[in-house]
Every structure is written in structure tokens, then in C-alpha cells.
Design brief:
Blueprint (H helix, E strand, L loop, with lengths): L3 H12 L5 H5 L6 H8 L11 H6 L8 H10 L15
Length: 89
């Protein structure tokens, strides 16, 4: 039997398009500590003049979304991040 709080959580998740635990967990990309190696050489953009956005326009026709996402997912480690009650959603 599901608790009332789990039923409310499941209803809330359904309202935003997560109809199952699989749908929710398939969005898991990883945790901060897992991504540290991927971000170790990253620079924080502190440019208030928007030069980075200007330069990004030069790469407008370059689509690296899949490559970037694969790089993130390669560092992902699954852990027990929630109780098995989530499977009842």
C-alpha cells in the first residue's frame, strides 16, 4: 500500500510528464562529484559584456549535444539514490 505522500508525489510527477519511475530515472545524468573530472579545466564565465555569447554564434552550425551528453554519461555511476517505493509510481 502506498502512503498518501507517495501518491501525491506520483501525481505531481505525472503532471510534469513522468509517468513511471523509469521515465524519471532516465533523466539522471550524474552527481556533482562524478562530473568533477569532466569540469576540471572548465573556466567560469565572468564576462558581463556577453562576448562569450557573441563567440558562440560562430559555432551556430556545430551540434555537439550528443557528444557532450555521452561525455557526461560516461562518468555516471548508479547508486541507490532512493527507496524502492519509487518503483510504485
Amino acid at each position: 500500500m502506498q502512503s498518501p505522500s507517495l501518491l501525491r508525489s506520483a501525481q505531481s510527477l505525472r503532471q510534469i510528464g513522468f509517468d513511471s519511475a523509469v521515465a524519471l530515472l532516465s533523466t539522471y545524468g550524474g552527481r556533482g562529484p562524478e562530473l568533477e573530472p569532466w569540469l576540471k579545466d572548465a573556466e567560469v564565465n565572468r564576462d558581463r559584456q556577453l562576448a562569450l555569447q557573441f563567440l558562440a554564434g560562430f559555432g551556430m552550425n556545430v551540434d555537439q549535444r550528443a557528444e557532450i551528453y555521452r561525455g557526461i554519461l560516461a562518468l555516471r555511476h548508479y547508486q541507490r539514490i532512493c527507496s524502492l517505493d519509487l518503483l510504485a509510481i
